[in-house]
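Question (not urgent): is this output format expected?
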Amino acid sequence: MPVDWNALADLIRRHQKFVLTTHVRPDPDALGSQLGFAGLLEHLGKEVRIANASSVPSRLQFIDPHRRCEQYPSQVCEQTVLEADVHVILDTSAWVQLAELGKPFKKSPAVKVVIDHHASSDQLGAIEFKQVEAEATGAMVFDLAESQGWPINRDMARALYCAIATDTGWFRFPSVTSETMRRAARLIDLGAEPAVLYNLLHEQNSLGRTRLAGRCLTRMMVDAGGRLAWTSVSLVDYRETGADATETDDLVNECLKLAGVEAAFILIEQPNGNVKASLRCRSHLDVAVVAEQFGGGGHRQASGATVPGPMAEAQQKIVTAMKKLFPA
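Got this back:
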């Protein structure tokens, strides 16, 4: 369903102080859409702070060259959040994904706005600008700018290009349309450099991350007649390989490279004993329904949830649920 960008533009014009946030462990779409949206607000003379529960991963710092994304509460205090006229939540519609920032957001009388392309949604008490068919939240921010004739500078173009490129698997996922490519072309015209950004995003792995990927490949398992594959990462793996917790992104996609695999997941042990499950599938399946069984959510083809540990029990639960995607 098309988004009424005029309604969002009118809301923006009526207010002055904005606090933007996104989900924990922000990815390029989360960061890119925030930075792009912040640039649009500042063009209109608005006061903007970007406050996230998680810091920007070191490998993604290039998306935020001016260090606009600040961490709550170490860099942005509660009072700043409470004094905002509008809270804008990008790339998520779940309270749990806001972590500690959810507390002041719930206390504040500020207008709440959600800009998101995920299917799953909590009742955030927000005005929702939701477009599930959008390939990235960054694409939605781009469309807002284009609809209103608001300028996109080079830094914004780079951030929004990263958002769209990564959430489409570098333009190879079924969500890609001709409009996606037109957006990408426009952002290139505005200063995004595909070769440079690809190198920064995908060709700067640490030795630790490479070793961690090797472990994940070695312990990969299959079931459901070869249609389901999975792997896992333990806390011990980080210590022994030298990788860190931000370097697990995209490892689940290695499972989908196996011939015949239609769905996959990776289990990542958390310091508190829980296990994070990232689920992926081909276009004819829906892993969001599996994630929702465990209190998570996301897209049909890419979802996640957190499951109580230990790892062996979490694995059994997820395998059982995922196998139900394949009727006998």
